[in-house]
Amino acid sequence: MSFKTMVNCLKRMIIAAFLLIFQSANAQQNFSDLTAILEQKQQLLGKDLVMMVANRDTIIYKKEMGEFKSKTPAPSASKWLTAALVMVIVDEGKISLDDKVVSYIPEFGKYFKNYITIRQCLAHMTGIADENGGILKKIASRRKFESLEEEVNSFAAREIQAKPGAEFHYSNMGLNIAGRILEVVTKKKFDQLAKIKLFAPLGIRQTSFTNIDMSAVNPSGGAKSTADDYMKFLTMLLNKGNYKGKQIITEESVEALMQIQTTNDQIKYAPKSAEGFNYASGSWVIEEKDGKATALASPGLFGTWPMIDFCRGYAYIVFVKNLLGEERAGAHIEIKEVVDGQFKSNCN
Description:
This protein is an alpha+beta fold. The protein is built from twelve helices and 13 strands.
């Protein structure tokens, strides 16, 4: 056999092996069951929705239903974005998660709230009493504030209902306090900082915390995004802070975002849709092993459900515009079980 013939045979063998691997991978990822459950749950979730699944940094599934597309902007999951932005500033050495809030916002010292930390803010464990009323009422009441500074200073004057770090009470206060600290440290408005430090490095162009009416920015619930944009954020976290070869936040900061901050007995108030789950920083712990989160989700008020499964190596987002309720949260858990079936867990 001539050398040329041997080379040609070798090339054919390599191509055949590649095709075999490629076909095998495709066979393993059959998302017909996922499409079926989305169609089954469409009326419950909302007639207009889009779902995307990414394996590491590749979009492997996208389903657009109704009038919603992957480029359609809608209210999004804000708290996870804000927590990640905090870690960007931690990586720059400008703050530490265990810094006291009062070090940056002296107003808290006037009301004897000297021991609240940034970490506790990200985990809804400030101990500050929330105002009465439903979520939508609280959103409406924010309109009286002209700036994030004004709103956060009003938090300082509220009563303390628990020792900081002792109890979990889900609210918008902690993440907004953390957002205000970022403004103080960087001397930039929160929405501008998010664009410069997080969105621009990720190539995210349709995501913003800026309000059209120019009212006070809301780090806890004011983000608007698209499924395309938010998926870039999720794949960055999935890849230990790296996005397309660029380290957006350090691996250590991603690990910090995965640390479980609560115990079951500490959770005194959680939305019905999240009851039974622990909390990390800006996201709920959907699955855990040996005290560490292995799957995180940060559902938004208007139904957006971003989720990362670190054990199985995938991320997904269901993007809708429909108030999240207990029944819808149950549907998302069912959807995750279907997606899980397409991936092998790497956690022993």
